[in-house]
Amino acid sequence: MAKSQDSFTFTVGKLDAGMAILLGERAHLIEFPSILLPPGATTGSIVNIAVHQNVSEEKRREAEFWALQNDILEAYGLTTPENPKLELRNVTQTSVTLEWPKIQLATAKLRTLDIYRNGQRLAAIPSPLTNNSTKLSGLDINTEYSFQLVLRTTAGTFPSNLIRVRTHTMTDTSGISVCFGNVQDEVLLENAKLALREMRAKWSEKIQIDTTHFVCTTPAATAPGAQASGNRAEAPGVEYQRALQLSIPVVQPHWILACHTEKKMIPIASFYLGANPSTNPAPYTRPQSMSQANLQHTPTSTASPAARSAANRASLPAPLRVTSTSPPNSALVNQPSANSEPRARSGGFEPTPEEFDGDAQDADATLQGATSAEKEAKRKSRLGTMDRNFKFPPTSPPPAVPDLPSSNKRSPDEDDAGLTSVGVVAPSSVEVPPPPPVEKERVGQAVEEGEEDVGETEEIALN
């Protein structure tokens, strides 16, 4: 093995401000920092350069590098963020309440914490570092859903466990979560709690995220053991005001008893605070329309199909037809008497020809077996019929028209002058105003307008 030289000889060829060009003995040309040249070296100077390896410095730097790596591993590599652990807190007919422990980020930084429903991102959890529960509403009744949390950090993505849950049916009341307010009747309060226990529901004294109803009999808050003032109105309680802010329905304890009796969820419309609750709520019925509510329905189960269809098609009650048995006798003109029974019709409808025919047939049926005189009397007394022997009275000449009296009589001479006997002015005596005089030709105006003066005209015979 050849021994390396201690130094190499170079000639300074070009010296610049920052770099120097060195020429070797074998025409080697290298660039060398001019700051490393000995003081006083200029162009053409000969310098010797020696290069040696510093092993001790290499070992020191290597040890320093690995010590830094160990520190980084202990600080950032031993602990990593944990996967969230999703848990089911409560489920109702239309909502699901989920909770999870506080997320562990280790030394990483949080990016997002998202909730997924059925494999699709639903929303981001607000304030994920302090919030550890959420309530998802607007779900379908008796439907299966899957939920999962996905934690994204600077150290990677960490999904949670998958939870599958089915929403309750209307007969499952175990999802009720009640917060009791001020219930003045202690017996009613105890009965409500017993009913909740039998329904496997739960209650609390504070509003929580899974609270479904706020139960009280008065919005006022009364401390335990304190006596309410008689005349002074107490302010609403804090939990009552919070229930209003969170849109939690405020109901009376009777709603719990009704749900326990019916063994299903009961509508809360009639159990709101201030309403008059009913212990036996009426079953749900579909409201009638205005046209159906005003009609008087008659049972049509025994009627024929044609009659039932006609009753269903009718928009107004059928007209009532009553035949009179005696001629009208009233003090008013064209008005029946009080003791008579006229032909009554609702709404003032005129009878149709079919109705007249039906009335005639009914009358003929009743007249069977009667004498001709009785039949004729019946026909004459029936309304809407004409006597066959009726004749109009004979016509007489019109009465003579008397002469009009004349107030001012005139002499024959005056009559000849144009005045009649009744004082009417004759047309011959009417004074007609003379026509307006014809204006002369405006010759000067025609000349001014540019018309030529044709002079005098001369008549020429045509034959």
From TrEMBL:
Acidic residues composition-biased segments: 352-362, 448-463
Residue intervals of the Fibronectin type-III domain: 80-174
GO CC annotation: exomer complex; trans-Golgi network
Low complexity composition bias: residue spans: 298-321, 421-431
Molecular function per GO: protein dimerization activity
Pfam family, one: fn3_2
InterPro entries given in the database record: BRCT_dom, BRCT_dom_sf, Chs5_N, CHS_Export/Cell_Fusion_Reg, Fn3_2, FN3_dom, FN3_sf, Ig-like_fold
PANTHER family: CHITIN BIOSYNTHESIS PROTEIN CHS5
Stated name of the protein: Fibronectin type-III domain-containing protein
